[in-house]
Amino acid sequence: MRAGIQQSIAAISAAACVVLASGAAVPAQAVVPTSRGVVAEQSTVVVRGLAFPAGRAMRLGLVGCESVYDRVAETPQAMIGTGPATAPAGERSLRYDLVGGNALGPLSYVSSVAQTRSAGLTAYAAEGTTGVVWAGYQEPADRHTGRVWFGRAEVAVPAGRWTRIEAVDLTYSWTKWDMYDQAPVADASSEAVPDGTLADMVVRHRGDGAGFVMSGLGCDGNEFAMDALRLETAGTATTYDLEGLATTASMLAPPANRVAAGQPVELRGALVDSTGAAMSGVTMILEKRVVGTTGWAVAQVVEVDGGAAVAEVAPEKATSYRWRFAERPMAEGSVSRAVTVEVAPGPGAGDGPTEAPSEGPSAGPADEPSSSAGPSGSAAPSASAAPSASAGQSQSAGPSSSPSQGAGGSTSPSTSPSGSASAGAGASTSAEVDPTPSESVTATPTTSPSASATATSTDPS
Protein backbone atom coordinates (compact mmCIF):
# COMPACT_ATOMS: atom_id res chain seq x y z
CA MET A 1 0.00 0.00 0.00
CA ARG A 2 2.80 2.43 0.84
CA ALA A 3 4.31 2.21 -2.64
CA GLY A 4 0.95 2.74 -4.28
CA ILE A 5 0.14 5.84 -2.36
CA GLN A 6 3.62 7.11 -2.96
CA GLN A 7 3.06 6.85 -6.69
CA SER A 8 -0.39 8.37 -6.46
CA ILE A 9 0.64 11.35 -4.40
CA ALA A 10 3.74 11.81 -6.50
CA ALA A 11 1.41 12.09 -9.48
CA ILE A 12 -0.77 14.77 -7.94
CA SER A 13 2.14 16.65 -6.47
CA ALA A 14 2.89 18.16 -9.85
CA ALA A 15 -0.38 20.03 -9.46
CA ALA A 16 0.70 21.27 -6.04
CA CYS A 17 3.67 23.30 -7.27
CA VAL A 18 4.92 25.68 -4.62
CA VAL A 19 5.99 28.75 -6.52
CA LEU A 20 5.98 32.23 -5.06
CA ALA A 21 5.39 33.37 -8.59
CA SER A 22 4.20 36.57 -10.07
CA GLY A 23 1.37 38.32 -8.36
CA ALA A 24 0.18 40.94 -10.75
CA ALA A 25 0.84 44.38 -9.35
CA VAL A 26 -2.06 46.80 -9.23
CA PRO A 27 -1.95 50.43 -10.37
CA ALA A 28 -1.11 53.10 -7.83
CA GLN A 29 -4.26 54.38 -6.20
CA ALA A 30 -5.63 56.14 -3.19
CA VAL A 31 -5.54 54.40 0.16
CA VAL A 32 -8.10 51.59 0.28
CA PRO A 33 -8.95 50.77 3.89
CA THR A 34 -9.70 47.16 4.76
CA SER A 35 -13.48 46.91 5.03
CA ARG A 36 -14.18 44.35 7.74
CA GLY A 37 -17.94 44.87 7.61
CA VAL A 38 -18.45 43.44 4.12
CA VAL A 39 -19.94 39.95 4.05
CA ALA A 40 -17.87 37.72 1.75
CA GLU A 41 -19.21 34.88 -0.35
CA GLN A 42 -18.29 31.69 1.54
CA SER A 43 -17.12 28.47 -0.16
CA THR A 44 -15.25 25.27 0.70
CA VAL A 45 -12.79 23.47 -1.57
CA VAL A 46 -11.93 19.84 -0.79
CA VAL A 47 -8.25 19.16 -1.52
CA ARG A 48 -7.48 15.49 -2.24
CA GLY A 49 -3.95 14.66 -1.17
CA LEU A 50 -1.88 17.61 -2.37
CA ALA A 51 -3.96 18.38 -5.46
CA PHE A 52 -4.64 22.05 -4.78
CA PRO A 53 -6.67 23.89 -7.42
CA ALA A 54 -4.70 25.50 -10.20
CA GLY A 55 -3.93 29.16 -9.67
CA ARG A 56 -2.22 31.32 -7.09
CA ALA A 57 -4.84 31.55 -4.37
CA MET A 58 -3.65 28.57 -2.30
CA ARG A 59 -0.72 26.18 -2.36
CA LEU A 60 1.96 24.92 0.03
CA GLY A 61 5.26 26.64 0.62
CA LEU A 62 8.53 25.86 2.40
CA VAL A 63 10.63 28.80 3.61
CA GLY A 64 13.41 29.51 6.05
CA CYS A 65 12.40 30.46 9.58
CA GLU A 66 14.97 33.25 9.96
CA SER A 67 15.23 34.39 6.33
CA VAL A 68 12.68 33.59 3.68
CA TYR A 69 15.32 32.38 1.21
CA ASP A 70 17.60 30.51 3.62
CA ARG A 71 16.22 27.00 4.03
CA VAL A 72 17.70 23.96 5.71
CA ALA A 73 18.21 21.12 3.21
CA GLU A 74 15.43 18.54 3.59
CA THR A 75 12.69 16.77 1.66
CA PRO A 76 9.58 17.00 3.83
CA GLN A 77 7.29 13.97 3.93
CA ALA A 78 3.58 14.73 4.04
CA MET A 79 1.23 12.42 5.93
CA ILE A 80 -2.51 12.25 5.37
CA GLY A 81 -4.54 10.92 8.28
CA THR A 82 -7.73 11.20 10.26
CA GLY A 83 -7.86 13.70 13.11
CA PRO A 84 -5.99 14.37 15.33
CA ALA A 85 -9.01 14.50 17.63
CA THR A 86 -11.75 16.11 15.52
CA ALA A 87 -10.33 17.77 12.41
CA PRO A 88 -11.64 21.34 11.94
CA ALA A 89 -12.79 20.57 8.37
CA GLY A 90 -13.89 17.14 7.19
CA GLU A 91 -12.27 14.03 8.67
CA ARG A 92 -8.59 14.26 7.78
CA SER A 93 -5.62 16.59 8.02
CA LEU A 94 -2.15 16.97 6.50
CA ARG A 95 0.84 16.37 8.79
CA TYR A 96 4.54 17.14 8.61
CA ASP A 97 7.54 16.43 10.81
CA LEU A 98 10.35 18.79 9.73
CA VAL A 99 14.00 18.69 10.79
CA GLY A 100 13.88 22.20 12.26
CA GLY A 101 14.86 25.56 10.79
CA ASN A 102 12.24 25.52 8.03
CA ALA A 103 8.56 26.45 8.08
CA LEU A 104 5.91 24.80 5.91
CA GLY A 105 2.32 25.86 5.35
CA PRO A 106 -0.17 27.64 3.10
CA LEU A 107 1.00 30.27 0.65
CA SER A 108 -1.44 32.71 -0.98
CA TYR A 109 -0.88 35.49 -3.51
CA VAL A 110 -3.26 38.42 -3.59
CA SER A 111 -3.68 41.26 -6.05
CA SER A 112 -4.91 43.60 -3.31
CA VAL A 113 -3.41 43.69 0.18
CA ALA A 114 -6.05 46.18 1.30
CA GLN A 115 -8.90 43.81 0.43
CA THR A 116 -7.31 40.78 2.08
CA ARG A 117 -9.30 40.21 5.26
CA SER A 118 -8.20 36.70 6.27
CA ALA A 119 -5.31 34.35 5.51
CA GLY A 120 -4.04 31.44 7.55
CA LEU A 121 -4.71 27.94 8.83
CA THR A 122 -5.80 25.87 11.82
CA ALA A 123 -3.02 23.72 13.30
CA TYR A 124 -2.45 21.00 15.91
CA ALA A 125 0.79 19.84 17.54
CA ALA A 126 0.82 17.19 20.28
CA GLU A 127 3.94 18.76 21.83
CA GLY A 128 3.34 22.28 20.53
CA THR A 129 5.37 23.89 17.75
CA THR A 130 6.72 27.23 16.62
CA GLY A 131 6.53 28.88 13.25
CA VAL A 132 6.81 32.05 11.25
CA VAL A 133 4.52 34.04 8.99
CA TRP A 134 5.98 35.93 6.05
CA ALA A 135 3.98 38.67 4.36
CA GLY A 136 4.75 40.63 1.20
CA TYR A 137 3.54 44.06 0.09
CA GLN A 138 4.59 46.13 -2.91
CA GLU A 139 3.96 49.80 -2.42
CA PRO A 140 2.67 51.89 -5.37
CA ALA A 141 6.02 53.65 -5.83
CA ASP A 142 7.75 50.31 -6.51
CA ARG A 143 5.29 48.93 -9.05
CA HIS A 144 7.77 48.81 -11.91
CA THR A 145 10.68 47.40 -9.89
CA GLY A 146 11.57 44.18 -8.16
CA ARG A 147 11.31 45.80 -4.72
CA VAL A 148 8.89 44.33 -2.21
CA TRP A 149 8.46 44.80 1.53
CA PHE A 150 8.87 41.51 3.43
CA GLY A 151 7.26 41.29 6.86
CA ARG A 152 8.16 38.61 9.44
CA ALA A 153 6.17 37.57 12.52
CA GLU A 154 6.74 34.62 14.85
CA VAL A 155 3.84 32.37 15.87
CA ALA A 156 3.35 29.39 18.19
CA VAL A 157 0.84 26.54 18.48
CA PRO A 158 0.19 25.30 22.05
CA ALA A 159 0.33 21.57 22.77
CA GLY A 160 -2.66 19.32 22.29
CA ARG A 161 -5.35 21.50 20.74
CA TRP A 162 -6.36 22.88 17.35
CA THR A 163 -5.30 26.54 17.14
CA ARG A 164 -6.16 29.15 14.51
CA ILE A 165 -3.35 31.29 13.03
CA GLU A 166 -4.61 34.48 11.38
CA ALA A 167 -1.90 36.24 9.37
CA VAL A 168 -3.79 39.43 8.53
CA ASP A 169 -3.95 40.57 12.16
CA LEU A 170 -0.27 39.98 12.99
CA THR A 171 2.27 42.73 13.56
CA TYR A 172 5.31 42.30 11.30
CA SER A 173 8.91 43.51 11.26
CA TRP A 174 9.39 44.95 7.76
CA THR A 175 12.42 44.99 5.46
CA LYS A 176 12.50 45.95 1.80
CA TRP A 177 13.94 43.30 -0.52
CA ASP A 178 14.99 43.23 -4.15
CA MET A 179 13.58 39.98 -5.47
CA TYR A 180 15.87 39.99 -8.49
CA ASP A 181 18.92 40.01 -6.22
CA GLN A 182 17.20 37.99 -3.46
CA ALA A 183 18.73 40.38 -0.95
CA PRO A 184 17.62 43.33 1.18
CA VAL A 185 17.70 46.72 -0.52
CA ALA A 186 20.63 48.71 0.87
CA ASP A 187 20.08 52.26 -0.42
CA ALA A 188 18.79 55.13 1.71
CA SER A 189 15.28 55.06 0.26
CA SER A 190 14.68 51.66 1.84
CA GLU A 191 15.29 52.65 5.44
CA ALA A 192 13.59 50.54 8.07
CA VAL A 193 9.96 51.23 8.88
CA PRO A 194 8.16 50.69 12.19
CA ASP A 195 6.59 47.33 12.89
CA GLY A 196 2.99 47.10 11.74
CA THR A 197 0.21 45.09 10.13
CA LEU A 198 -0.49 44.75 6.42
CA ALA A 199 -3.19 47.39 6.78
CA ASP A 200 -0.64 49.72 8.41
CA MET A 201 1.65 49.34 5.39
CA VAL A 202 -1.18 50.30 3.02
CA VAL A 203 -1.81 53.49 5.01
CA ARG A 204 1.86 54.27 5.60
CA HIS A 205 2.78 54.01 1.91
CA ARG A 206 -0.40 55.65 0.68
CA GLY A 207 -1.77 53.00 -1.57
CA ASP A 208 -2.83 49.44 -2.17
CA GLY A 209 -0.55 46.87 -3.74
CA ALA A 210 -0.17 43.23 -4.60
CA GLY A 211 1.31 40.86 -2.06
CA PHE A 212 1.44 37.41 -0.50
CA VAL A 213 1.00 35.66 2.84
CA MET A 214 2.92 32.50 3.81
CA SER A 215 2.10 30.89 7.18
CA GLY A 216 4.58 28.15 8.14
CA LEU A 217 5.07 25.86 11.13
CA GLY A 218 7.72 23.38 12.27
CA CYS A 219 10.63 25.73 13.02
CA ASP A 220 11.44 23.75 16.18
CA GLY A 221 11.26 20.37 14.43
CA ASN A 222 8.08 19.21 16.21
CA GLU A 223 5.43 17.33 14.24
CA PHE A 224 2.26 19.25 13.42
CA ALA A 225 -1.00 18.83 11.52
CA MET A 226 -2.87 21.46 9.54
CA ASP A 227 -6.35 21.80 8.09
CA ALA A 228 -8.98 24.40 7.21
CA LEU A 229 -6.60 26.65 5.26
CA ARG A 230 -8.39 29.93 4.56
CA LEU A 231 -8.18 32.94 2.29
CA GLU A 232 -10.66 35.83 2.21
CA THR A 233 -10.05 38.61 -0.27
CA ALA A 234 -11.99 40.78 -2.69
CA GLY A 235 -15.36 39.61 -1.40
CA THR A 236 -14.63 35.86 -1.57
CA ALA A 237 -13.85 33.65 1.42
CA THR A 238 -12.60 30.12 0.74
CA THR A 239 -11.82 27.33 3.20
CA TYR A 240 -9.59 24.52 1.92
CA ASP A 241 -10.49 21.18 3.52
CA LEU A 242 -7.49 18.81 3.36
CA GLU A 243 -8.71 15.25 2.79
CA GLY A 244 -7.41 11.88 1.59
CA LEU A 245 -7.23 10.63 -1.96
CA ALA A 246 -10.48 9.75 -3.66
CA THR A 247 -10.38 6.41 -5.48
CA THR A 248 -12.36 4.63 -8.22
CA ALA A 249 -12.54 0.82 -8.36
CA SER A 250 -13.72 -0.73 -11.66
CA MET A 251 -14.73 -4.22 -12.79
CA LEU A 252 -13.66 -5.03 -16.34
CA ALA A 253 -15.80 -7.26 -18.55
CA PRO A 254 -15.05 -10.96 -17.90
CA PRO A 255 -14.04 -13.24 -20.82
CA ALA A 256 -17.22 -15.31 -20.29
CA ASN A 257 -20.50 -14.64 -18.51
CA ARG A 258 -21.55 -18.31 -18.58
CA VAL A 259 -19.35 -21.26 -17.64
CA ALA A 260 -19.67 -24.89 -16.59
CA ALA A 261 -19.80 -25.59 -12.86
CA GLY A 262 -16.26 -25.39 -11.47
CA GLN A 263 -14.80 -23.99 -14.70
CA PRO A 264 -12.20 -21.24 -14.01
CA VAL A 265 -12.86 -17.71 -15.22
CA GLU A 266 -10.55 -14.68 -14.86
CA LEU A 267 -11.85 -11.45 -13.36
CA ARG A 268 -9.95 -8.18 -13.74
CA GLY A 269 -10.28 -4.91 -11.86
CA ALA A 270 -8.78 -1.44 -12.05
CA LEU A 271 -7.99 1.14 -9.34
CA VAL A 272 -7.15 4.81 -9.89
CA ASP A 273 -7.00 7.86 -7.64
CA SER A 274 -8.87 11.14 -7.99
CA THR A 275 -6.39 12.43 -10.57
CA GLY A 276 -6.81 9.34 -12.78
CA ALA A 277 -3.37 7.98 -11.81
CA ALA A 278 -3.10 4.19 -11.51
CA MET A 279 -2.42 2.97 -7.98
CA SER A 280 0.07 0.25 -7.01
CA GLY A 281 1.26 -1.52 -3.89
CA VAL A 282 -2.23 -1.60 -2.37
CA THR A 283 -4.80 -4.40 -2.16
CA MET A 284 -8.37 -4.76 -3.38
CA ILE A 285 -10.94 -7.25 -2.14
CA LEU A 286 -12.86 -9.39 -4.62
CA GLU A 287 -16.30 -9.96 -3.10
CA LYS A 288 -18.86 -12.59 -4.15
CA ARG A 289 -22.57 -13.26 -3.66
CA VAL A 290 -24.39 -16.38 -4.86
CA VAL A 291 -27.41 -15.36 -6.92
CA GLY A 292 -30.55 -15.55 -4.82
CA THR A 293 -28.77 -14.87 -1.52
CA THR A 294 -28.08 -11.65 0.37
CA GLY A 295 -24.82 -10.22 1.67
CA TRP A 296 -21.36 -10.07 0.14
CA ALA A 297 -18.49 -12.34 1.24
CA VAL A 298 -14.73 -12.07 0.66
CA ALA A 299 -13.62 -14.22 -2.26
CA GLN A 300 -9.98 -13.10 -2.49
CA VAL A 301 -7.63 -10.30 -1.44
CA VAL A 302 -5.56 -9.23 -4.45
CA GLU A 303 -2.47 -7.04 -4.86
CA VAL A 304 -2.89 -4.07 -7.20
CA ASP A 305 -0.02 -3.45 -9.59
CA GLY A 306 -0.09 -0.53 -12.01
CA GLY A 307 -3.77 -0.02 -11.28
CA ALA A 308 -4.65 -3.63 -12.22
CA ALA A 309 -5.94 -6.53 -10.11
CA VAL A 310 -6.46 -10.09 -11.42
CA ALA A 311 -8.26 -13.01 -9.76
CA GLU A 312 -9.38 -16.46 -10.94
CA VAL A 313 -12.68 -17.89 -9.72
CA ALA A 314 -14.49 -21.21 -10.37
CA PRO A 315 -18.13 -20.80 -9.33
CA GLU A 316 -20.33 -23.87 -8.72
CA LYS A 317 -23.50 -21.76 -8.89
CA ALA A 318 -24.44 -18.50 -10.55
CA THR A 319 -22.47 -15.88 -8.63
CA SER A 320 -22.07 -12.11 -8.69
CA TYR A 321 -18.64 -10.51 -8.13
CA ARG A 322 -17.39 -6.99 -7.43
CA TRP A 323 -14.13 -5.25 -6.42
CA ARG A 324 -13.83 -3.23 -3.20
CA PHE A 325 -11.05 -0.85 -2.12
CA ALA A 326 -11.37 -0.45 1.64
CA GLU A 327 -11.19 3.03 3.14
CA ARG A 328 -8.01 3.84 5.03
CA PRO A 329 -6.51 6.96 6.63
CA MET A 330 -4.85 8.25 3.48
CA ALA A 331 -7.59 7.37 0.97
CA GLU A 332 -11.33 6.95 0.69
CA GLY A 333 -12.82 3.60 -0.28
CA SER A 334 -14.69 2.71 -3.46
CA VAL A 335 -16.68 -0.22 -4.89
CA SER A 336 -16.96 -1.35 -8.50
CA ARG A 337 -20.07 -2.41 -10.36
CA ALA A 338 -20.96 -6.11 -10.06
CA VAL A 339 -20.90 -8.76 -12.80
CA THR A 340 -22.73 -12.09 -12.66
CA VAL A 341 -21.19 -15.33 -13.94
CA GLU A 342 -23.92 -17.83 -14.83
CA VAL A 343 -23.23 -21.54 -14.30
CA ALA A 344 -24.45 -24.32 -16.65
CA PRO A 345 -24.88 -27.88 -15.32
CA GLY A 346 -22.46 -29.71 -17.63
CA PRO A 347 -18.89 -29.22 -18.85
CA GLY A 348 -18.61 -26.91 -21.77
CA ALA A 349 -22.11 -25.61 -21.15
CA GLY A 350 -20.97 -22.12 -21.78
CA ASP A 351 -20.76 -23.03 -25.47
CA GLY A 352 -23.68 -25.53 -25.58
CA PRO A 353 -27.46 -25.26 -25.90
CA THR A 354 -29.42 -23.11 -23.52
CA GLU A 355 -32.13 -25.84 -23.09
CA ALA A 356 -31.63 -29.60 -22.47
CA PRO A 357 -33.16 -32.01 -25.08
CA SER A 358 -36.28 -33.99 -24.11
CA GLU A 359 -35.49 -37.06 -22.01
CA GLY A 360 -37.29 -39.70 -24.17
CA PRO A 361 -39.26 -40.35 -27.37
CA SER A 362 -42.31 -38.29 -28.09
CA ALA A 363 -44.62 -41.43 -28.01
CA GLY A 364 -44.12 -44.89 -26.45
CA PRO A 365 -45.26 -48.36 -27.91
CA ALA A 366 -48.77 -49.69 -27.23
CA ASP A 367 -49.20 -51.62 -23.97
CA GLU A 368 -50.80 -54.69 -25.70
CA PRO A 369 -50.64 -56.16 -29.24
CA SER A 370 -53.44 -55.38 -31.63
CA SER A 371 -56.04 -57.95 -32.48
CA SER A 372 -54.87 -58.36 -36.03
CA ALA A 373 -53.45 -61.71 -37.22
CA GLY A 374 -49.88 -61.09 -36.63
CA PRO A 375 -48.62 -58.88 -34.00
CA SER A 376 -47.87 -55.63 -35.60
CA GLY A 377 -44.53 -54.28 -34.48
CA SER A 378 -44.92 -50.96 -32.88
CA ALA A 379 -43.27 -48.20 -34.75
CA ALA A 380 -39.92 -47.12 -33.49
CA PRO A 381 -40.28 -44.05 -31.44
CA SER A 382 -39.34 -40.95 -33.28
CA ALA A 383 -36.48 -39.12 -31.70
CA SER A 384 -37.19 -35.58 -30.74
CA ALA A 385 -35.50 -32.94 -32.79
CA ALA A 386 -32.05 -31.99 -31.67
CA PRO A 387 -32.06 -28.54 -30.21
CA SER A 388 -30.15 -25.85 -31.95
CA ALA A 389 -27.09 -24.53 -30.18
CA SER A 390 -27.74 -21.22 -28.56
CA ALA A 391 -25.41 -18.33 -29.32
CA GLY A 392 -22.95 -17.49 -26.55
CA GLN A 393 -23.96 -14.59 -24.39
CA SER A 394 -22.39 -11.29 -25.19
CA GLN A 395 -19.96 -9.98 -22.65
CA SER A 396 -20.81 -6.93 -20.60
CA ALA A 397 -19.00 -3.85 -21.72
CA GLY A 398 -16.03 -2.77 -19.68
CA PRO A 399 -14.50 0.64 -19.31
CA SER A 400 -13.33 1.97 -22.63
CA SER A 401 -9.87 2.65 -21.33
CA SER A 402 -8.01 2.87 -18.09
CA PRO A 403 -7.05 6.35 -16.97
CA SER A 404 -3.56 7.47 -17.61
CA GLN A 405 -1.20 8.03 -14.77
CA GLY A 406 -0.47 11.58 -13.74
CA ALA A 407 2.97 13.06 -13.87
CA GLY A 408 5.09 12.64 -10.80
CA GLY A 409 8.31 13.95 -9.40
CA SER A 410 9.37 17.18 -7.90
CA THR A 411 10.91 20.21 -9.53
CA SER A 412 14.07 21.88 -8.39
CA PRO A 413 13.81 25.29 -6.76
CA SER A 414 14.19 28.31 -8.96
CA THR A 415 16.78 30.88 -8.04
CA SER A 416 15.58 33.56 -10.40
CA PRO A 417 12.89 36.04 -9.36
CA SER A 418 9.54 34.90 -10.54
CA GLY A 419 8.20 37.93 -12.24
CA SER A 420 6.66 38.43 -15.60
CA ALA A 421 10.23 38.81 -16.80
CA SER A 422 13.38 37.02 -15.73
CA ALA A 423 16.12 38.91 -13.97
CA GLY A 424 18.73 40.69 -15.97
CA ALA A 425 18.79 42.69 -19.17
CA GLY A 426 15.65 42.70 -21.19
CA ALA A 427 13.39 42.06 -18.23
CA SER A 428 10.00 43.71 -18.46
CA THR A 429 9.26 46.61 -16.18
CA SER A 430 6.43 44.81 -14.40
CA ALA A 431 7.88 43.02 -11.36
CA GLU A 432 5.90 40.33 -9.59
CA VAL A 433 5.29 40.36 -5.92
CA ASP A 434 6.83 37.10 -5.24
CA PRO A 435 9.63 35.87 -3.09
CA THR A 436 8.94 32.65 -4.89
CA PRO A 437 9.55 29.63 -2.77
CA SER A 438 9.48 27.68 -5.99
CA GLU A 439 9.34 23.93 -5.87
CA SER A 440 6.71 21.33 -6.09
CA VAL A 441 5.33 19.72 -2.99
CA THR A 442 5.62 16.09 -3.97
CA ALA A 443 3.56 13.66 -1.99
CA THR A 444 4.66 10.18 -1.08
CA PRO A 445 2.13 8.81 1.41
CA THR A 446 2.75 6.23 4.07
CA THR A 447 0.10 4.05 5.67
CA SER A 448 0.15 5.46 9.13
CA PRO A 449 -2.85 7.53 9.87
CA SER A 450 -1.25 9.17 6.97
CA ALA A 451 0.08 8.79 3.56
CA SER A 452 3.54 10.06 3.05
CA ALA A 453 4.17 12.78 0.54
CA THR A 454 7.35 14.36 -0.52
CA ALA A 455 7.25 18.10 -0.18
CA THR A 456 9.81 20.16 -1.94
CA SER A 457 10.68 23.62 -1.00
CA THR A 458 9.07 26.92 -1.46
CA ASP A 459 11.55 29.11 -3.07
CA PRO A 460 11.04 32.85 -3.19
CA SER A 461 12.35 33.71 -6.53
TrEMBL record:
Keywords: Signal. The keyword Signal applies. Residues 360-461 have a biased composition (Low complexity). Residues 1-30 form the signal peptide. It comes from the Bacteria. Residues 342-461 are annotated as: Disordered. This is Uncharacterized protein. It comes from Nocardioides marinisabuli. The lineage of its organism: Bacteria, Bacillati, Actinomycetota, Actinomycetes, Propionibacteriales.
